[in-house]
Amino acid sequence: MILMIDGHSFHYEMENLCRIFFPYQKIEVLHGAENTVEDGLVAYTGLAKKQDGVLLTARFHGNSFSEEKTELLTGQTAESEDEQERHMAILLFELLTRYCGYTPKWGILTGVRPVKLLRQLKTKLGEQKAFEQFQTNYLVSKEKAELSRVTMHNEEPILALSRPESFSLYVSIPFCPSRCSYCSFVSSSLEQTAKLIPQYLPLLCEEIRRTGEIASELGLRLESVYVGGGTPTTLSAEQLALLLRTIRENFTLSTIREFTVEAGRPDTITAEKLDALKDGGITRISINPQTLNDDVLKIIGRRHTTAQTLSAFSLAREKGFHNINMDLIAGLPGDTVPGFQNTLDHVVALAPESITVHTLALKRSARMMQEENEPFGSDALAAGEMLDYADAVLAENGYRLYYLYRQSRMVGNLENTGWAKPGAESPYNVYIMDETQTILACGAGASSKIKGPRADQLERIFNFKYPFEYVSRFQEILDRKDQVKSIYERFQQIPKTE
Ligand code: SF4
């Protein structure tokens, strides 16, 4: 489709909005004055300054549909770029909703952190007004606004534990035994990159050591450790033991509330690795079935079976893991609403301490996206039904929603939700989503986020994305890590204003 941008700079937001309705279309953005494209799907958004304010115009045509909406903004609204953008988004949203016959439940919100926005509104307006504005200004449905409100309440006690000197540590193991077809993560297939692990691991340990020194020099306090990927249990038991020992030796772990390893793929979990995790002090692991339907697992190229998931889960229980998370995905190709319900019921019967329900998100790079012209599993209504079912069943079974986030190109523009039995929440998930705490991250594909005392003080330091770059340009990683101190020093110089 074509998106025309005329007289304003909101192309990013307008493009994201179009993507909600046409997730699989290539969107071509044309800047400048209105032109005469007439074929296919064409959206036009224009802003023109007038004597009495700012005139916004949105137009959409496709097939036999052709409609235009305009709005004249006056006074302060006309002067605020944020308001111009919001009003423009509403005009376009209304046209696209009419064309598609479908009203996305998150309204014009395209960002990944709706709960954070609600919290910011609450700080300014109080909770009730914030809740109302969430719906009236951003067109969020009552149901999703309520979901956000519940999440906001449940994450508050966890956020309250964070102090100015708090931080969490993230360690990235960007390797997997094979690549799942829907995956957009920068994770190379083990077959191709296994040879890099022996080089990668010692360097990662060195970065962890340097990070530990920096944290200690700055007097930071560690709150949670999260080893993710990829699939960390792609490493052997000995490699896992080395990694965890390095973390233990270089950080003060007496203050932590969570030490998670995302075991992820059930086909990588063995008794030896679970022993290594237990001995290494791991308090929480994730075993991710995604679905308990073997036919769907085959379609998504996950290369493990339901039987492997169940046996990995019971082995982990035998080994004494009492805080296990399981990830599921709604909207998988080949899955159905009853199929998803069956998976969820079965997982709830296993009674893991937490369950994360993702909605399928396809990124441009995902193999299935490249192979399929027609969207698969893109039935937004089915995915919506799956999530509604999950929300109801998880709540009935004593799970509480404690974090929520969204990704671009999610089926139905829905959300990912993290549910836990009270006390089994992962603080790391809350801190990373709310961006209220520094995250020091090590490894390829990881990025550190340094949080200052003021709400808008957040700076990122990016590591190289790919293991090969990480290994071959490692000195640059160490040099970048040293920026952590200078960023903290700079933040200290800025007077606290709130
Ligand atoms: S296990 Fe996860 S990170 Fe690895 S390929 Fe599959 S979806 Fe991607």
Task: Give a brief description.
The chain has 498 residues and is an alpha/beta fold.
Strand content of the residues, in percent? 15-25%
| Broad shape | globular
The total of beta strands comes to 18
Number of domains: 3
Rounded to an integer, what's the Rg over CA atoms? 24 Å
Which structural class do the helices and strands define? alpha/beta
| Major sheet | 9 strands, mixed
Distance between the termini: 45 Å
Low-confidence stretches: 369-378
CATH topology of the largest domain: pyruvate-formate lyase- activating enzyme
CATH class descriptor of the largest domain: Alpha Beta
User: What's the number of helices?
Assistant: 19
Q: Identify the strand order in the major beta sheet.
A: 14-15-13-12-11-10-9-6-16
Helix content: 40-55%
- The CATH fourth-level homologous superfamily of the largest domain: tm_1862 like domain
Could you tell me which ligands this complex binds, including any ions or cofactors? Answer: iron/sulfur cluster
Mean pLDDT: 91
At CATH's second level, what is the architecture of the largest domain?
Answer: Alpha-Beta Horseshoe
Describe this structure as you would to a colleague.
The chain has about 500 residues and is an alpha/beta fold. It has 3 domains: about 1-100, 2-Layer Sandwich (Double Stranded RNA Binding Domain), CATH 3.30.160; about 115-155, no CATH class; about 160-480, tm_1862 like domain (pyruvate-formate lyase- activating enzyme, Alpha-Beta Horseshoe), CATH 3.80.30. The chain has 19 helices and 18 strands. The protein has helices at about 10-20, 75-80, 80-100, 115-125, 125-135, 140-160, 190-195, 195-215, 235-250, 270-280, 295-300, 305-320, 335-350, 365-370, 380-395, 425-435, 465-470, 475-480, 485-495, and strands at about 1-5, 30, 40-50, 55-60, 65-75, 165-175, 175, 190, 220-230, 260-265, 285, 325-330, 355-360, 400-405, 415-420, 440, 445-450, 460. The protein has a 9-stranded mixed sheet with strand order 14-15-13-12-11-10-9-6-16, sandwiched between helices. A hairpin with a 2-residue loop joins strand 4 and strand 5. Helix 13 (about 335-350) packs parallel to helix 15. The chain starts with a strand and ends in a 5-residue tail after the last helix. Bound molecules: iron/sulfur cluster.
